[in-house]
Amino acid sequence: MIERVRSNKYKRLCRTHVRVLEGLALYGPRNVSKLSAQLNMPRGAVRYRISHLRSHFSLRFLGSLYHTYIGLRKVVVFAESKPGYEELLYECLKFNDYWLYVSQCIATPKCIAIYGIPSGKEKELEEFLRKLEELDQVSNVRFFWSTCFQNVNATSEWFDGTSEEWVFPWDSWLKEVLVKKGELPYTLKDPSGYPQRADWIDIMILKELEKDCAIRLKEIAKKLGISLQRVKYHFENHVIKDKMFEGPQILAEHYTGLSADTYYFRFVFKNHENFTKFACSLIKKPFIRVMGKVYGESQLFVQVYLPRQQLRNFIDTLSKLIRAGFLDTYEYFIQDLTKTERETIPYQLFKDNHWVYEHKVYLEKLRSIQIDS
Predict the structure, then answer these.
(1) For the chain, where are the E strands, in sequence order?
(2) Interatomic CA distance for residues 175 and 152, integer angstroms
């Protein structure tokens, strides 16, 4: 059975919009000329479509880093507070300057946090989380060391260009998962190490790309107060050649008008083969935003973006995978995007070409909370 979901005609994507989104993910938002050539559209028309997507579908151009090659190790944290102390937990998670992402959850006093911790400081981070859990207002702090994340930008795979509707063929996807073949992207493979390949200029370029991957190199040069030639050299010979930058993350509310929510899932699989099949089946699905693998385990983090009415169908499909012995278990939270923040790498703490981790400062902030209470 294929479900079709139609939104208000003034708030839904047309076929051209979807092609533009796909092209932006493929060529990057700084290559409008190449994109217009591929779409056989005038540059002015492409720019108009991009402007429309910005104003009506909250289009944003973010950049994804391969933190592994700048010496940072990802960790995903789930934490719970006592009712009434959700804001306190949210702020405490940001006491550690290496936070990259913090989000509150709806209908439960839980938070999700993602950190990029300097390699070699794993024990310090674990102590920070133990001290966090010792606060009277906090409980059930869990953490999972993770690979870097794989972004999944919107595609036309489940978009009917004729009717200009999103379709959700869950039965077909179920069959695909069970037989899917493919190799995991490098972002979802356990790295053998965390080499620090960047210098100060590289880190500053990466920081700017994280905020807006459409930024021109000449703008970065102006911000850094150095020559454009120098920025180009570092961008081409370090950032790109040494694979510090994964690519653009093209974020758009492509289900605008369909009452969509964002969910954070953790899937646990019977074995690595099933993990691989499942992950590969999601690479081009429009309801996926980002994926990450639990280091050393057949577990997958997935941020899911779905029309609310489709969540039940997705859950029913997962239940079938469990009954088939393919999937072991899963958990998920509904994210509150009005209480979600994303931060760049802590470039202020990159000194003399290495990361400074102020462990005692972070613990002291937590101790002050305990004293005040």
Answers:
(1) 3-5, 60-65, 72-81, 99-105, 110-118, 138-151, 159-160, 165-168, 245-251, 260-269, 288-294, 299-307, 327-342, 350-351, 354-355
(2) 21
The per-residue pLDDT for range 123-152, each reduced to its tens digit, is 999 999 999 999 999 999 999 999 999 999
Domain residues of the chain, as ranges?
Answer: 199-241
* CA neighbor of 206 nearest in space, from 112, 197, 22, 191: 197
Residue 131 and residue 363 in contact, taking contact as beta carbons nearer than 8 Å: yes
147: nearest Cα among 236, 246, 25: 246
Of 165, 160, 190, nearest to 297 (Cα)? Answer: 190
pTM: 0.93
Pairing state of beta strands 350-351 and 354-355? antiparallel
Domain 199-241 has CATH 1.10.20: no
Supply φ then ψ for residue 218, to 5 degrees.
-65, -30
